[in-house]
Design brief:
Helix content: 25-40%
Strand content: 25-35%
Number of strands: 11
CATH architecture of the largest domain: 3-Layer(aba) Sandwich
Largest sheet: 11 strands, mixed
Distance between the termini: 25 Å
Number of domains: 2
CATH topology of the largest domain: Aminopeptidase
Number of helices: 7
Order of helices and strands: HEEEHEHEEHHEEEHEHE
CATH class of the largest domain: Alpha Beta
Radius of gyration: 17 Å
């Protein structure tokens, strides 16, 4: 696992939660970045990033204060974490590619949106991930925010799909990819992937990265297939450990 492939992702999530202070929290403890959305219980948002040592785990556990939380392990701490009662959880495959053009077609109208469409972007993300309405600032606050480019695919006037690009130190991270259920199968994510790759190239990036759940028998993943079709290469599975 190449640590640099995680840097832009980690910066993106920390910035996203910082942009929604009424919903998300970010803390630096023991050199690690700790994220939490209290009351959601999500492995996406309640996690510790770039943990270099288990020395601070007691302080980190106190920060989460009973909320479920995970460690995204990029430092090979698995054996030490398991000694402390952590349990291996569903891993995430990291992907990377250059910024050569990706051609994709969709009957939907893909647009780079501004603040006036923040609610459209948030509605797709919430519906796509089945998130409660009170978490809307986690998505809406990113639209028009420095470092972020947010895309919405429209079916007429209806927001159908969404995705974001976050640029950090010359690397583009692609996340927040979601499609509302009734619009799936119409090419929204392929078109939004292509648009974000081109946007990253225009902004001077040489690499784009993303991630999704690792491939497992009996666990279908259209996201995984879309990423591979867009020219990304598998870069390795990042282990996740659930705290006791």
């Amino acid at each position: 696992m190449v640590l640099d492939l995680n840097t832009a992702e980690y910066a993106a999530y920390a910035d996203a939660l910082s942009a929604a202070p009424g919903v998300g929290e970010v803390a630096r403890l023991g050199g690690a970045t700790c994220l939490v959305v209290r009351g959601l219980g999500s492995r996406v948002f309640n996690r510790v990033l770039d943990l270099g040592s288990t020395d601070a785990l007691d302080d980190i556990a106190a920060f989460y204060a009973g909320e479920p939380w995970w460690v995204s392990d990029t430092r090979g701490l698995g054996p030490e974490l398991e000694e402390r009662g952590f349990v291996p959880d569903y891993g995430w495959m990291k992907f990377s590619r250059g910024v050569s053009p990706r051609q994709a077609r969709s009957e939907l109208d893909v647009r780079l949106v501004g603040r006036e469409a923040a609610d459209d972007f948030a509605r797709v993300v919430l519906d796509g991930y089945d998130l409660p309405d009170w978490t809307a600032p986690l998505a809406a606050s990113l639209v028009g925010r420095a470092g972020w480019s947010c895309y919405v695919a429209y079916a007429g006037r209806e927001p159908a799909g969404a995705g974001a690009l976050f640029v950090h130190e010359g690397t583009g991270w692609l996340g927040y990819a979601a499609t509302r259920a009734r619009f799936r199968g119409r090419g929204a994510q392929s078109a939004i992937l292509a648009a974000r790759i081109e946007d990253a190239r225009r902004q001077g990036c040489t690499t784009v990265v993303t991630e999704t759940g690792e491939a497992q028998q009996g666990r279908p993943s259209s996201s995984y297939r879309n990423i591979l079709r867009a020219g990304f290469r598998e870069a390795g599975v990042r282990a996740n450990y659930r705290a006791p």
